[in-house]
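Hi R.,

As promised, here are both runs. First protein below:
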Amino acid sequence: MGGAKITPALAERLRGCAPASPVDVVVEMCPAPPPVPSLPRGERVQAIRESFEAAVGPVADAVTALGGTVTAAVWLNQTLLVRVPADAVGKLDAIDAVHRIDVPHPLDRD
């Protein structure tokens, strides 16, 4: 399994999964165009949030249609954490709004 948007780490993990096994993946959305720089900071932040929410809707619908769930959405880094059957990950690759699909990575303190 290896679509253009699926990272090598995720492809490796999927090779060891049964097709119906649920897997957690991070869906990185395509970057939204930046808001107009002359807007006040609060309005720029709101524009980024609204753009993310608009782009996420169809992706979340696709995840649900594939038998999965969205477990978290983070507008700051434009990502979704989703749980889908292993054999459905490749179908996420075909969604235009999706930039990359990866394994979740733990955050480490510096």
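And here is the second one, sequence first, then its structure tokens:
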Amino acid sequence: MLRSASESLSDVRLGSALSLLGVDRAAVALQSRRRVPFAWDGALRALAELGHGSRPRPRFGHGVEAVVGPFTLLGCFYPSPRNTVTGRLTEPMIDAVLRRARDLAGLMP
């Protein structure tokens, strides 16, 4: 359930942007907060607005892939100083997620 009208409007905008950009294969959700996956949840709501709901709702995690309709949503920790200094996110970890997104999108290396 959406928490506010502005959240709903943001989801519609993201869903519209995905449609307009022709994004039809993969999207990466960068997670900036430890407990509340805003980007992940927002992407799932936007995909639901496009008619691609997913039940049960996929849980966020770094490197997690969730197939939602024709899309694959990839989870990635945000490269914040806290995540990088502590080793929670390393360069090879983010590179792996971005390579996977590139491969799913059918782009050349």
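A quick note on the second one: The two ends are 39 Å apart (CA to CA). Let me know what you think.

Best,
J.
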